[in-house]
Design goal:
Elements (H helix, E strand, L loop, with lengths): L2 E5 L7 H18 L2 E5 L11 H5 L16 E3 H8 L10 E2 L2 E2 L5 H11 L4 H14 L5 E5 L13 H8 L6 H11 L5 E5 L3 H11 L3 E2 L23 H15 L4 E4 L3 H9 L5 E3 L5 H4 L2 H19 L1 H20 L1
Length: about 325
Amino acid sequence: MEKRLINFQAGWAGVFAKLNMYVVACKEAKRKNFQPVPYWPSVWHDEDIDVWDIFLKRLNHQVEDKCQPIDEINIVKLFAKREKDKSVNPAPQYAGVLREPFDRKACYEIIHEYIHLQTWLTDKIDSLYEQSFQSRRILGVHLRGPGKDDVGHGGVDRLNYLLGVGSPPFPKYFEIIDACLEDYDRIFLGTDAGMVQKKMRERYGNKVFTVASDQYELGEAHARNTSQAGISFNKLGMEAIVDAYLLSRCDFLIHGNSHLSNFVMCLNPDLPTRNVYEGLYDRAASPQLRMKSMWNKEIIPILKHGPIGKTRGKLGLLRRQLMRKKV
């Protein structure tokens, strides 16, 4: 079978944003009958590291194949081209906002065939499951942090801003958790932020457990230079993957907008879920709110930091200098 390189492209997108894109690429491989060869260049390491080989197995090809002269597919461009494919897409987009997958079972079949974790990682997940999940009713909660400057991914910052639900939207989560908590023994929290762990433990105490460290207080640590911040990407990526695979084995999942939670829904297509933004997507996509979002999130920053903003800043500095000279 012909092999084609799937180039993940260097960039700051998180593990599951790229894995969701890879699911779409694998659908393309099945449609066109070729063997995908993933190449995931890292921006988080100083050395030439392929992120795929840290966490995932190579199936039906060898690591050397990515160095051969084979046709190459840009995964980001392919995803943009196929993002409205409802049959196999874990991360459909609408009005700049990530939506839930339309066909979870079709996505599951692709994941089951093409995405296998390294043995050390599956052993770790199985061990944690046996320690804390077995013979218990577990409520899964995926609650991401606000990220630096409240800028998240998947449109979560836009949703929170437009709908006035806060970032993170703790009241929405607490309302849903409180309504069903008595049916579960414990809460498994998947998060990327130390401040989320703190808030959840303040409210639910020892009922909450997590495998996440508190490497970064606000979350979204993958979207920055982790080595300069003293954060281990290998640990960060491992925790995200462990979170996802354990969340998929919970009895119920409460989640917001995230590539990780979308992947979880495809890992276990029969998992019952509740989205904290349920019923709010159409409102967020209304023309008035989209214009408001564009003005505040895109146009104002351009005016402030673009040529006009820089000119205004220089004129202001010159004015202050002239005033000081007069004094």
